[in-house]
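Late entry, evening session. Most of the bench is empty. Finally got around to the prediction I had been postponing all week. Sequence below, unchanged from the version circulated by S.P.
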Amino acid sequence: MNKTLKRFLVALSAVLIALPVFTGCSKDGGKKIVIKGSTTVLPITQKAAEEYRKTNKVSITIEGSGSGNGIKALLDGTCDIANASREMKEKEVKKAQEKGLQTKEIACALDMIIPVVNPKNPVKNLSLTQLKGIYDGSISNWKQVGGSDAKIVVISRDTSSGTYEVWEGKVMHKTDVRKDALLQASNGAVASAVAGNDKAIGYIGFGYLNSTVKAVKVNNVEPIIANGKSGKYPISRKLYMYINEKSISEDAKKFIDYILGNEGQKLVKEAGFIPINM
């Protein structure tokens, strides 16, 4: 696949993620909350919004286009809440300051980034060193890590993804992912690609685990809630919601308080993630 076609498919995937929702800005007036950003945090906000609107008359629009795009939207004033599966970068913080914004970071859940393979793949455990080798290309055949004699097909995320940024920092240590990696724009797209290829490996947020893929232990640590909450699992992280305290509406504040409260944190767990306040 040439680079132009690959970029087109990544962009198309990002657009498809956003199709079920409406775009807009809360500055239009009325009770409206606009949320943009991380596809990892997307299921949490979707589930919370569905329940919240049963007892609150407010319009909540949600777009999953990647953490970087969500933070950019917050800085541009086109959303109330930016979902992010990583912390704001120094350059983003600086840009916010230059614009006179007062950004606030709110941790809403805990997550684990989990390597996944096709259920037919016999590999059950990989070390961080082996994962780095697979993704930088120095390990190219499954037999090098205890699997079958077959070329490894690497599935990765695009660079606007917070999940990619955490993987790059915790696994790759800023080393480039191999050039022939197949890039996907969402956790769901990665899971689907791995499910359809018995030679593939990818990585997804804990909430996206399903029976179509097989979770791989990392350094012999199983990706279960207890290990994620304790920090024992080596690729753990917090999930965030960013706001501009100078302009956030009362409705957006109330929605965030709902997610951080007991009912919202139960929904975090139901969405497949790890509650941060329970």
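Two things to note before I forget:
The two ends are 46 Å apart (CA to CA).
The mean pLDDT is 90.
Will write this up properly tomorrow.
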